[in-house]
Amino acid sequence: MERGKQQGRKETILLRKLSNACRFCGLIQFQGEMRKKVLFQLLLLLCYPFPIIRKTTASQLYEMLLTYDDVIDAEILDEVMANLSDNNWDADLPTVRAQRNHLCDLMGVPKPIIATKLHQGVL
């Protein structure tokens, strides 16, 4: 019974993350600081532990860039689109992180920093 509850929680988290990617893509239409935050969040999802989240986010980001042509410079659009479609988002996290960081560099979005957990009493 407990295992079923845990499985249900994982599925709920998975569905929330998938819907977040969709919501963020819709929010990209707002320019300025909102757009920067949305791009950061989308690129953050590209390194989520579950590959389905990474693949879905890459696909939705690709479609969003087709829809809104003013999100990134036209000079880098082809390279960004190629990276989103050609990268293997099922790969291990270090490989995916390198791919995501390359996209961050191209798009001028700050690279997310990996947070380390602090243990009680240890700095």
General description of the model:
With 123 residues, this protein is mainly α. It contains five helices and no strands. Helix 4 packs antiparallel against helix 5 (93-107). The longest helix has 26 residues, at 2-27. The radius of gyration is 16 Å and the shape is globular. The chain starts with a helix and ends in a 16-residue tail after the last helix. The model has no long low-confidence stretch (mean pLDDT 85).
Please tell me how large the radius of gyration is.
16 Å
Looking at the chains present, what oligomeric state does this protein adopt? single chain
Q: What's the mean pLDDT score?
A: 85
Structural class: mainly alpha
What is the overall shape?
globular
What about the largest sheet? none
The string of secondary-structure elements, in order, is HHHHH
First-last Cα distance: 39 Å
How many helical elements? 5
SS elements, strand count: 0
What is the helix content? 55-70%
- Show unreliable segments: none
Strand content: under 5%
Overview features:
single chain, 123 residues, mainly alpha, 5 helices, 68% helix, 0% strand, globular
